[in-house]
């Protein structure tokens, strides 16, 4: 089943299990893919993502992508024009999707379902009544929602003072892929160095080891998800690449001084 409503500035779409599309791109539109049930098997710029409920993904204009939905899965897609008075540029001049924001965006699935329903009903009614103000209010609400989401999901900046371009490439990779399984040899290859020289160069540049740096990125994102999503602690630990919930607990406690449960309740 599919539902779709489009205006001059936004497009809202919902699809369910069985849907599949072909590789394509949107030159003028920013898209955010928001799984609300099950798993969305998504490919973006030749990289595969298994997006689960509450794990959104940003597609900047011009990004090639395609996906298919698993059994009992459902997804909401929100598209907004990047440029112009009614698009993302309205809330941030010279806005460029993907510049300064993480492409992975956490959201509350239940909240999104409720918003989507309200937006769809208001748009259908506004279009049926030829009421431009009603439609424009929804457009503004959608743009504001995505603006808030992107600000909440902003990446941590790369550490300043790192002049070695090879180390900076390795750091950028860590920031983009910290929830994947990453090994030293892979990072050393990106930095065009041997394992030994990479670890030494990395420590000189950042003041810490690659593993500790990776843990910091994961724990920082875990803190964000504990506060801003309803994902379970076990799910957060899995999604962020920890080998077990106990490993996540130990790392979180060591870095923050409290357990994930206590942090969420604070």
Comma- or semicolon-separated keywords:
20% strand; Homeodomain-like_sf; 2 domains; transcription regulation; HTH_AraC-typ_CS; Jelly Rolls; sequence-specific DNA binding; 9 strands; alpha+beta; transcription; Arc Repressor Mutant, subunit A; 9 helices; 266 residues; 44% helix; six-stranded antiparallel beta sheet; three-stranded antiparallel beta sheet
Brief characterization of the structure:
44% of the residues lie in helices and 20% in strands. It is α+β, with helices and mostly antiparallel strands.
Helices and strands in order:
Layout: E1 2-6, E2 10-16, E3 29-37, E4 39-44, E5 47-52, E6 55-59, E7 65-69, E8 74-81, E9 104-106, H1 109-128, H2 132-152, H3 165-177, H4 184-190, H5 195-206, H6 210-228, H7 233-239, H8 245-256, H9 260-265
Antiparallel strand pairs: 1-2, 2-8, 3-6, 3-8, 4-5, 4-7, 6-9
Helix pairs in contact: 1-2, 4-5
């Amino acid at each position: 089943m599919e539902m779709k409503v489009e205006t001059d500035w936004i497009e809202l779409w919902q699809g369910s299990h069985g849907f599949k599309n072909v590789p394509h791109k949107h030159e003028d539109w920013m898209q955010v893919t928001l799984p609300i049930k099950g798993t969305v098997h998504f490919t973006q710029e030749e990289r595969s993502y298994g997006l689960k409920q509450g794990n959104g993904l940003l597609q900047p204009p011009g990004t090639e992508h395609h996906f298919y939905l698993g059994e009992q899965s459902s997804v909401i897609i929100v598209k907004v024009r990047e440029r112009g008075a009614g698009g993302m540029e309205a809330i941030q001049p010279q806005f460029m999707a993907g510049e300064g924001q993480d492409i992975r965006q956490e959201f509350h699935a239940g909240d999104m379902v409720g918003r989507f329903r309200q937006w769809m009903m208001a748009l259908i009614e506004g279009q049926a009544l030829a009421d431009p103000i009603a439609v424009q209010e929804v457009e503004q609400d959608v743009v504001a929602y995505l603006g808030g989401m992107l600000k909440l999901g902003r990446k941590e900046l790369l550490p300043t003072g790192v002049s070695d371009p090879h180390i900076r490439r390795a750091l950028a990779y860590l920031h983009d892929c910290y929830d994947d399984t990453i090994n030293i040899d892979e990072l050393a290859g990106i930095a065009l160095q041997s394992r030994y020289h990479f670890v030494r160069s990395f420590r000189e540049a950042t003041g810490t080891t690659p593993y500790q740096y990776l843990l910091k990125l994961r724990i920082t994102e875990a803190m964000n998800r504990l506060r801003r999503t309803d994902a379970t602690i076990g799910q957060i630990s899995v999604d962020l690449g920890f080998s077990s919930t106990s490993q996540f607990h130990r790392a979180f406690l060591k870095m923050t001084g409290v357990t994930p449960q206590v942090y969420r309740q604070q």
